[in-house]
Write a structure and sequence with these properties.
The chain is α/β, with parallel strands linked by helices and 298 residues long. The chain has a single domain (3-297), classed as Rossmann fold, CATH 3.40.50. The chain is built from ten helices and eight strands. The chain has helices spanning 3-6, 20-32, 82-96, 115-129, 131-134, 148-162, 185-189, 198-209, 243-255, 279-297, and strands at 42-49, 55-62, 68-72, 99-103, 141-146, 170-174, 232-239, 260-269. It has an eight-stranded mixed sheet with strand order 1-2-4-3-5-6-7-8, sandwiched between helices. The longest helix is centred in the last third of the chain and has 19 residues, at 279-297. It is globular and about 50 Å long. The termini are far apart. 51% of the residues are buried.
């Protein structure tokens, strides 16, 4: 474990997702403790995307942006909203130069799959239709997110490919949750890792899926064919149950002919990039932004 990160482990509250309402409060408190980002160079606007039901979004516009990313927050499909994601959406917009459309998608267990996917896909379609209004090239729209949000981004990319939907330039998958089966080595063996462990992952999928069987749009690792998907940047954390499914997905994308960058961050755990005082976390955020900038600017 990176020593700068290890020092913070005792400060993390226990989060097992047995009580989603209570865990949302703790998650919001953690997000509120993150140092405020510099938003002086951004125009920030709350909007509503027409859908059934309508989807709240927060749009972060840097000056002279060329492209945009439909950004999906983490939180295990159970926690998180526009406010908890604000520190990260603002930082990514400011450092990447991309318009960030942060999505306030519906969460489980009140709204199970496919509610979050439907919300995310509606925002992708809206972004493509309103690219001129957003000041970006409609051919330079990416999808991305962290953890559950990265899993949603991968599912959006699959759905857009299968349904001949809006073109997606790039997918930015940070520590993605992709596989409900929990059969990889890391998913089976990381039972005591910080913030995310096997039992918590089990609870996440139970809340998200209920009793319904998983499809590739719920758990993208189940997709048999990954060809024709957008280029991807995939990151994994060393001490994270999602680690091996993220690496496996990146390898399968490569084998399907999809350009991929894969970064396995040594000494990190799931979500540890939120500890901004750590040097490795600063590098993680900077590299996410740089990868998005390259994908949308080239």
């Amino acid at each position: 474990m990176d020593p700068e990160l290890e020092a913070f482990i005792p400060l993390f509250p226990k989060a097992d997702l047995t009580d989603p309402v209570e865990e949302r409060k703790k998650f919001a408190e953690l997000a509120a403790s993150v140092p405020a980002p510099d938003t002086s160079q951004l125009d920030i606007e709350d909007r509503t995307v027409p859908a059934d039901p309508d989807v709240p979004v927060r749009v972060y516009r840097p000056r002279q942006a060329q492209g945009a990313v439909v950004w999906l927050h983490g939180g295990g499909y159970v926690m998180g909203d526009l406010d908890t994601e604000h520190p990260w959406a603002a930082r990514i917009a400011d450092s990447s130069g991309a318009v960030v459309i942060s999505v306030g998608y519906r969460v489980a267990p009140e709204d199970r799959f496919p509610a979050a996917l439907d919300d995310a896909y509606a925002v992708l379609a809206w972004a493509a239709e309103h690219a001129a209004e957003l000041g970006v090239d409609p051919e330079r729209i990416a999808v991305g997110g962290h953890s559950a949000g990265a899993g949603l981004a991968a599912a959006v990319a699959l759905r857009a490919r299968d349904q001949q939907g809006p073109p997606i330039r790039f997918q930015l998958l940070n520590q993605p949750g992709l596989d409900d089966r929990q059969e990889t080595w890391s998913a089976r063996n990381f039972t005591e890792t910080p913030w995310m462990n096997r039992d918590k992952v089990t609870a996440i999928w139970r809340h998200y899926l209920g009793s319904a069987p998983a499809s590739p749009y719920a758990a993208p690792a189940r997709a048999a064919d990954l060809s024709g998907l957008p280029p991807a940047y995939v990151t994994t954390a060393e001490f994270c149950p999602n680690r091996d499914e993220g690496i496996d997905y990146a390898l399968r994308l490569l084998q399907a002919g999809v350009p991929v960058e894969l970064h396995q961050w040594s000494g990190t755990f799931h979500g540890s990039q939120a500890i901004l005082s750590a040097e490795v976390s600063q590098r993680q955020i900077a590299e996410l932004s740089a990868a998005l900038h390259r994908a949308l600017a080239e």
